[in-house]
Amino acid sequence: MLAIEILSIIELVFFFPALLAAILVVYKHGTGKRLGWRFLVMICLFRVIGGICAIVWAHTSSNGALIAYEVMNSFGLSAIIYTALGLLHRVEDGMGGRGVSFKVFRVLALPGLAGLILSIVGATNVLGNSSNSSSFSSGMAELKAAVILFLTVYVADVVITAHAFFNITYVQDGEHRLLYAVTVTLPFMAVRIAYSLLCVFLNKHNIFSTWNTSALPILVHGLMGVTMEAIVVVIFLFVGFMTASISRVPGLAPPTTDGKLHGKAERKVRPPLYDLGARSV
């Protein structure tokens, strides 16, 4: 059995039950806008599809399965950083005038969309036309650009997390754990992004590669890629089950912390403004 098959089976064994758990989390919190929980389903779904594609590729050497597998890796990276962004959006929105504007989150949806498009085009050029040196070069450039765009969103996650901590007294009751969960996952996301950067920039495909079937690159992929995503999923699933669902309605009283009103007492809580999931992944 190839190393890629072993890794894929491990992915399926973990991410398929996680997919079911993520669906339960979405059911608990609802499918309303800006909640971020739907990205949990996407992470698990992308990994399940990727695992299936890898097994098909190992048995058939199909370029289509290989391209799909590579695309799912990029989609998984995008989904974990946008899960964090979606949860931060919920936290910041509850802070009223102290929170980051929803327009910032709207803008941050665009790099993810562009990154996904570049990932698809890049993977197709690199793996679908590997004998064509110009296609390979352009494909690698597109993959590099995609990872840089994902890195941009990750940096935004870090900055917004720091902003929330600087204004933590304005965070609503029950949502501190969301902020803590995002904070805990950031180092694991950093390793995952570092792995993608090494794959496209270092040019050492005998170590850092998602399409090399040798044991060493598969092991590195499993540790720096799949394992990091699995840890992030576990943390977000846990906080998803532990956090109460919310329903934001225009005209409700402003958020409180320890029973104290924050912001102007007459402020109305904004209704859901933007569906982050509609623009990315």
From TrEMBL:
Q: Magnesium as a keyword?
A: no
Where in this chain does the record put each DUF7702 domain?
7-243
InterPro entries from the xrefs? DUF7702
User: Where do the TM regions start and end?
Assistant: 6-27, 39-60, 66-88, 108-127, 147-166, 178-198, 218-239
Q: Which Pfam family is one of this chain's hits?
A: DUF7702
Q: Does the keyword Membrane apply?
A: yes
What keywords is this UniProt entry annotated with?
Membrane, Transmembrane, Transmembrane helix
* Source domain of life: Eukaryota
Read off the PANTHER family from this record. INTEGRAL MEMBRANE PROTEIN, UNPLACED GENOMIC SCAFFOLD UM_SCAF_CONTIG_1.265, WHOLE GENOME SHOTGUN SEQUENCE
Q: What is this protein's name?
A: DUF7702 domain-containing protein
Species the sequence originates in: Exophiala sideris
